[in-house]
Amino acid sequence: MKCSICNRKAVYFQRHSNRHLCRRHFIEDFERRVKIAVRKHKMIENDDRIAIALSGGKDSVTLTFALSKLYGKRRNLEFIAITIDEGIEGYRPPTVEIARKITKELGIEHVVVSFKENFGMTLDEMVRRGDKKPCTYCGVFRKYLLNKTAREIGANKLATGHNLDDETQTILLNFLNADIERLARLTPQRVQEGLVMRIKPFKEVYEKEVVVYGLLHKLPLTFDECPYSYFPVRTSVRDFLYDFENKYPGRKYSVLRAFEKLEPCLRQLYPQIKLNMCEKCGEPTPRKICQACRLLDELNP
Ligand code: SF4
Question: How far apart are CA 65 and CA 47, in angstroms?
Fold first, then answer.
């Protein structure tokens, strides 16, 4: 197949635009859409110090590379990568190594923080000790550590590797669960004291495009899945969206645009509440004691 733009050999068929793209035009198109999303939501601005949530998985490795390539030369911007080592034997150590390698190659400062050092036990130990699902512990403690570390290193934004597939799955899942409050939390640029603002530069590119972009740049991508990964409802939503997109290309963008139209109503319906500081650890929480401290109390009776 030839590229629809220049006649060179195509490496990718972009279903939503019905175009075949060669290496050069695929990369140009990908980077252009990332930059448009970044500008549209003012994700990156002068004098930002941006923490990148770098797990070492394919999305975050590609994000770190893309941010460095597209914005790394700007003098008034800083990037620092944060890797959270949850302590998942056999799965996390190789991705921590990938994170170390890529940040060294790109010349980006890198901080690794672990569950063991901060909470006294690894995720594997929490799972053996507690009665909650692994992802409950992982989600709460990882979010906690990412925010705390980003704030402590002086970052004003925290970039994550969420892509168009992740975003549309989350939007639909919240609708299906009738959890409109959680849906409202997806609206961009929410600023709350103590919480570092999240940005998602890949939110307008498909997951497979992230992978192709990473492969074309010969990045060290890993496709291993976490041994605790178990999301039956999200998997059903993902499969539904995949089939729907296959039949009607571009529908994931429709989901995102529909959500954007609802954003003003969601902001009105759920205005931001002022957060408290956790009475135990001082981290921001809507309650008196944060979720991480409550889980730790359960794990250390
Ligand atoms: Fe953590 Fe669950 Fe993701 Fe594994 S699948 S990294 S336990 S959230």
Answer: 20
Amino acid at 264: P
pLDDT band at 103 (very low <50, low <70, confident <90, very high): very high
DSSP 202: T
pTM: 0.95
One-letter amino acid identity for 204? E
User: In angstroms, rounded to a whole number, what is the distance separating the alpha carbons of residues 141 and 119?
Assistant: 9
Q: How many CA atoms lie within 13 A of 190 on its CB side?
A: 23
Substitution candidate for ligand 1 out of 122, 136, 138 with most atoms within 8 A of CB? 138
Mean pLDDT for the stretch of residues 90-105 = 97
143 has a pLDDT exceeding 90: yes
- Of 86, 226, 231, best ligand 1 pocket probe by most atoms within 8 Å of the beta carbon: 226
Residue 53 φ/ψ, nearest 5 degrees: -75, 100
Residue 284 alpha carbon to ligand 1 centre in Å: 23
CA distance 280 to 1: 61
Which pLDDT value is given to residue 189? Answer: 65
Rounded to the nearest angstrom, the distance between the alpha carbon of 228 and the centre of ligand 1 is 6
Which residue's CA lies nearest to atom 6 of ligand 1?
Answer: 226
